[in-house]
Amino acid sequence: MDVNRMIGKKTPKREVVRVVKESVIPISKNRIVEELEDLIENEADRSEFAKLCKRVEYVIRAWYMIHFENMMDLYLLFDPVHGASKIKEKKLSPEKVDELEQKFLSYLFQVMRKSNFAIVTDEEFEMAQSGNYLLNLPIVVDESKVDSTLLSKYFENNPCGNLPAFSDKYLIFRRAIGIDTTTEFFYMAKLDLIISRLWSWLLKKIKFEGIFRLICSPKSPTRSATFKRTEEPDEEYMTVERIRLESIDMSLGTLLGKVEIQEPTFDRMIVVYRKASTNGEKDRGIYIKHFKNIPMADMELVLPEKKSPSLTPMDWVQFLVSVVVGLGALFTSMETPGSDMWVAIAIISALVGYCAKIYFSFQQNMETYQNLITQSMYDKQLDSGKGTLLHLCDDVIQQEVKEVILSYFVLLQHGGATKSELDDRCEELIKEKFGLECNFDEEDAIQKLDKLGIVTRDEMDRRTCLSLKKANEIIGPTTEELVLKAKKRSQS
């Protein structure tokens, strides 16, 4: 008997997920400033560049201050803990509260866009559900516990394309791509895989495989415009390798030893929703939860108001079909003249093993699910509510400052440039100096450079930066600089 053929031993296939490059710059502002300073040879210019970076940050903070303050003030009314008391204290009518909550969402989603967060689409969510990483249970939202009026009203007044089907109840935002690797023995998962392959091999031998596969085969993965499983090169995409247990060569070494699996992650995810009202009293709280490093295939971990996992109807179908097919194969083999007792024993063993596999796999997956939920609460959840809003405000400022610093430096080093030239040179600088790829947002960067008044534009639409000294003079001293000067004068 060829055991390798029975368990499906095969050469591992490389699975690559192609992801659209995002505009987020995944490098800290301080590191960018330090690295770029080192590229400036003249010491006086280095000092002027450092001063310019600080002044740019202070000006950009001032630009967004009113927007951030308005957003934070509005959120006080919709904080799930203290918001209700604030509304009563201000004696606001229900109509006024409706107006203010829509205004808050408008502020929030503007900040989301500026911080380079994108809404997860149906295609992306389906791709997450079609694969498994550490989470192997079907997770769904208990829709009776989630409000469906808040977001649906917002998008009714502010239409937006490519919204997911669940956008009336909750929104999931994502930003930046990373990689998560896990090295474990995965004994139960390996046993599950071996039993499945043995069962498939047995069904093939007794000519039942086609029927079983037709009834019980899982849904094939959905491919989307954002996540593509292909290895074709494209400047707009970056590739991330996905390593699953199913694709690993099941040799004796991998069966008994540790194996490493790998999955692309969303570096940051934010979930926005409101709980359904209970006891006739309308719940005004808006929940905003911030997560980090969530594997794409385990995206369901961030869903709000999750139902407790259980065996799905498909699991029961698989179980019942397995029993019927197994018993049918057993009776058929026993009635065949000259039937071999060992064949009957093999069928019974495979049937018992497959049923046991379904039960023990579910128990193991439940334990893993509880561990992952605990981990998502304590390790992967960055913040919620007001803390998340403060994170977002700082993210916006940092991204805007980094775009200005990089684009100004490129113009300083290379001279005048068109929009496309500036885009290419900034992306090349990020890749060569920091070893990272991103889709630099040259349009936004140029708008800020023009607003700051530190570049000029010619008839060919080429931007040229002013000298460091002139740029600092135009922006002028910051409040911090004036305070420090005043402090020095008082001490002298």
Automatic annotation (TrEMBL):
Q: Which residues cross the membrane?
A: 316-335, 341-360
- Keywords recorded for this protein, A-Z: Aminopeptidase, Hydrolase, Membrane, Protease, Transmembrane, Transmembrane helix
What is this protein's name? Aminopeptidase (DUF3754)
Task: Show the InterPro entries listed in the entry.
Answer: DUF3754
Answer yes or no on keyword Transmembrane helix: yes
Q: Which organism is it from?
A: Rhynchospora pubera
Molecular function terms in GO for this entry? aminopeptidase activity
Keyword Transmembrane helix in the entry? The reply is: yes
